[in-house]
Design goal:
alpha+beta, 24% strand, two-stranded antiparallel sheet, 1 helix
Length: 45
């Protein structure tokens, strides 16, 4: 519910530490929902 109410989301990843830090998805919740690179998007139903 919190992420659905955000104006804009920047998703970092794909992992943590040395394997992270890249912007893998960004946009409004509706854009992340349809982005195949986003791990968060699938939860924004």
């Amino acid at each position: 519910e919190v992420l659905k109410s955000c104006d804009y989301i920047i998703e970092l990843g794909p992992e943590g530490g040395d394997k992270g830090g890249e912007i893998i998805a960004k946009g409004i919740p509706e854009q992340l929902k349809d982005n195949p690179n986003s791990r968060t998007g699938g939860y924004l139903i």
